[in-house]
Structures are given as structure tokens and as C-alpha cells.
Amino acid sequence: MEKNDTKSLHIAMFPWLAMGHLIPFFHLSKILAQKGHEISYISTPKNLDRIPKIPPKLSNLIKLVPLPFPKIESLPEFAESSMDIPYQKAQFLKIAFDHLESPLVNFLKTADPKIDWVIFDYASHWLPNITSKLGISSAYFSLFTAATQAFLGPPSLLLNDKFTRSKPEDFCRVPEWIPFESDIRYRIHEVTKYTEGAVGNESGVSDTERFLVSIDRCDLVLFRTIYEFEPEWFDLVCQLYQKPVIPLGVLPPLLENGELEGYENFKKWLDAQRVNSVVYVALGSEAVLSQVELNELALGLERSGYPFFWAIRKSIVESTPFPDGFLERIKGRGIVYVGWVPQVKILSHSSIGGFLTHCGWNSAIEGLTFGRVLIFFPVMNDQGLNVRLLSGKKLGVEILRNEQNGWFTHDMVAESIKVAMSGEGGERLRANVARIMEMFGDKSKNDHYIDSCIHNLVNMGK
Question: Do 432 and 451 fall into the same domain?
């Protein structure tokens, strides 16, 4: 007998220790709580302090559950997230994350009311076995596009001794399991960092294995995507996974008062700029730039002639100074802000026309939801694959780089900005982005995806 969709569920959320994962998991938590479901949002104390405040009207439905962060010798003190460490230490953070298994199990065993579902992230590949023994359903929540996950392959690869991908070059070919024409692959300069985590590493489990085991052993796979955006890729992951796969919609960003701290510092400057004239620049919470890369990006922004707002991490500025005289020369025309900014609010401002981005999926969604043409500068992880997908859909322009070593010049940066903002071909880009903006921002469509997801959670639960 089909269960009643009005049944209230108790859902545990367990994201990976990165802001690009913590925030979307919390965003989904709020959406599910608004539908009347009880949420236990689980992470470590410092990360729980970093996420946005729980809206007062949802405070009785969302409970923050802190798990003590284990001490790991190779991690700096107080480092509880990927933004606290250099990329090279990411696998030590996964060791710490794996140590959360025991306190998490204790919580799941004693939670009252009983947990119905655990929605988890790729890094906790060990979780589905635990939830199965406890009689709890598990859903892997992919914060990656269907195209990116399809590139990783089917879980059956775990049983294939011939599957190695031990060299960077192995990631630079379109996989044999993709049955249609595709150019979604890494470039060699993009994949060098990725393979540090994708194949064997200090944690003892490669990132590829974490992904595929999570998918193989969970009861349900959820995607932050819209079927209409990448239908062939979504159909492919359904074939590869051989289990229920559900799109959640893109979870379009919300403009909430509690997340706008500091916005007044920039509003006056943004208000003074022409509509669609400003380039917003942000490369995520984990990007590391070499001195040459920082110099060329800065000089390219300067040479483009467009006003720009560059949000940059403090750790980058502390280790990598700007070119001599750059900050003085761009006064009035450009803002360089060191630290966190309310990105969603800035992207929503009418003066923003282009978004120079690392092309993490979360940031891409935010930019496209507000109709901003993307200027691609992938840095790490899945970002190169996202660029191939979005570039193929003519939603932005990529800063040209040498495929082997990633070399680029400030002239290449300036030229890409000019094309995106007003140059030849830019009109087509803007028309395509406007179409996707309508799709991503369609409240009715996104609500339908969420309601369909909840229907499945209610009716598929153990």
C-alpha cells in the first residue's frame, strides 16, 4: 500500500566538510523543513557555526547535531573544513571525516524519533552499510552534474580489475561507456591536481572509489539538477546506476536577510554602475593561485576596461601579492574585497553582467539563475568537466589556456571578458543564458521536483 505523502519524515543530513557541500545540504534542509519534515543536520562544531542561521520559523524542525572533530596529526589545529587547509592536505581531512563514523552511528541508533532517511555525501562511502543494518534508508546527494558523475562511470567498475585510471592521461579521454558524442573530458593541466585524490592516497580510499561505493550501496541517488538541462546525461546515469535516480531541481539560491551581512559596504558602488556592466570575480573557497596566475588575472581585468568586483580569499592575498601598482590603478573602477561576501546578493544586482568563475556547480547555478554570462576559469576537481558541459551549451566563454601546462596571459583574460560582456558572439551567449535563467528560476518547476522527491522518500523508506 502506498504511504501518505503527508507523513512527516525525520531526515538526517550528513555533508562532506567543505563549504560548497555544507551550504547546499543546509539549503535542502530548509526546503524539506518548510514542507513539514524534521531535519537533523550533522557536522562538526566549527562547520555548524559557519552555516547560515536557522530561520526562526524553522527552528523547531531543524536541529544541529555536532560531532566532535577528531585530532589528526597532519592537520592544522582548528582545521575542520577544506577551506582551512591547502589542497594537498585534503586526504588527511578525509581521514578525520572517516573517524566521525563512530559518533555518527551512536546518534543514528539513539535518535528520537527514529531516523527515516540519511541523505549523505560522496565522502562517507561507508555510511550505506551502516544505515542498512540499522533499518534506515540512505540517499546519496550528488552536488555534481549528471554529466560529471557519468564521466566517473558505473559502480560496476569497482569489480573490474582492468579499471585503473592511474595516470592523469586516463582522465583526458571520453570514457567508453558514454554512448553519444561528447567532448566532456579533462585537460591535462586540470586533471593533475584531481588525480591526487581520484586515485590512491593517504586516506586509503580514492575519491573515485568513494563516489562509486556511495552510489552502489545507497537506496536512492539525488541530483541537484533539472532533467531538461542535461537529459541525455541524466538518462545515462540512470542506465549506469541501475537504481532509482531522482532530480531535485537546481535548488535556486534564496535572498535571505540573515545572509546579507556586509552587503551595504558594496551596494553604493554597485548602484553607481551601469546595468550589466560589471564583471563579478570569485574562484571559490578552495582555489589556490600561483603568483603568475594571480598577476595575469589581475592585469587582464585591468586591461579589459570593464568595472569589476573581485572577491578573493585572505589566504591567497597573504601568500600571493598583486602586481605592483595594480590596486592604485584600478581605484574607482574596480573593487578587490578580501574575505567572504554575500555572493548571491551581489550576483542578483542589476549592474552585474558577467561572472568570472571557477565553475563549481554551485556557483554556476547561482550565476545562471540571475542571468549572468559565465567566464570560465576552472581550478580543480570537477570544474573542468563543468566548463565543457556549459561551454557546449554556449552559456559562457572560457579563458584560453595551454592544454598541457595551463599557461595563459592577461590578454587572453581581457579578450574573454570582452566577448562575454559585449563582443562578437556575446549576444548569443546572453540569449542562451536568459533561457537557462528562466529554466533554473522557475519556482513551479523546482517545487515540482522537490514534491516528487518527497513523494519518493515517503514511499521508498524502509
Answer: no
pLDDT 10s digits, 52-64: 999 999 999 999 9
* Beta strand ranges found along 249-317 (DSSP E): 278-282, 308-312
* Residue whose C-alpha cell is 551581512: 261
Distance CA 100, CA 95 (A): 9
Tell me how far CA of residue 454 lies from CA of 18, 118, 412, in angstroms: 26, 13, 46
Cell of 454: 518527497
Domains held by the chain: number: 2
Residue 24: closest CA among 93, 119, 98, 118 = 119
pLDDT at 2: 38
Total-model pTM: 0.92
User: CA 163 to CA 37: how far, in whole Å?
Assistant: 41
CATH of the domain at 140: 3.40.50.2000
- The answer on 199 and 268 residing in a single domain is no
Q: Per mean pLDDT, which range of 53-67, 199-213, 348-362, 418-432 is the poorest?
A: 199-213
pLDDT tens-digit map of 289-348: 889 999 999 999 999 999 999 999 888 888 888 999 999 999 989 999 988 888 999 999
Q: DSSP letters along 44-111, please?
A: -HHHHHHSPPPPGGGTTTEEEEE-PPPP-TTSPTT--SGGGS-GGGHHHHHHHHHTTHHHHHHHHHH-
Provide the β-strand partners of residue 142: 223
Q: Are residues 269 and 214 in the same domain?
A: no
* DSSP letters for 138-151: EEEEE-S-HHHHHH
- Name the nearest CA neighbour of 298 among 423, 379, 188, 408: 408
The band of 45, judged by pLDDT with boundaries at 50, 70 and 90, is very high
On whether both 328 and 187 belong to a single domain, the answer is: no
Q: Which domain holds residue 212?
A: 10-252+442-460
Please check whether residues 244 and 120 belong to one and the same domain: yes
